[in-house]
Amino acid sequence: MSRTAENYRGYNFAYLDEQTKRMIRRAILKAIAIPGYQVPFASREMPMPYGWGTGGVQVTAAILGPSDVLKVIDQGADDTTNAVSIRQFFEKTAGVETTTETEKATVIQTRHRIPEAKLQGHQVLVYQVPIPEPLRFLEPRETETRTLHALAEYGLMHVRLYEDIAQHGHIAKTYAYPVLVADRYVMDPSPIPKFDNPKMDDCAALQLFGAGREKRIYAIPPYTKVVSLDFEDHPFEATKFEQPCALCGATDSYLDEVITDDQGGRMFVCSDTHHCETRRCEGHVGHLGMPVTEAAE
Amino acid sequence: MSLAGFPNPVLDQQAAFRAVMQALSEPGCIVQAGALAGEGSPLGPVARAIALSLLDFEVRFSLSSSLADAEGDITFHTGSRLASRLDEAEFAFVDLRQDVLDLGSFAQGTPEYPDRSTTVILRVESLTGGPSLKIRGPGIRGTRELNIPGLPTDFALQWAANAARSPLGVDLIFVTNEAVLGLPRSTRILPEAR
Ligand SMILES: [Zn+2]
Question: Containing domain of residue B165, as a range?
Answer without folding.
Answer: 9-186
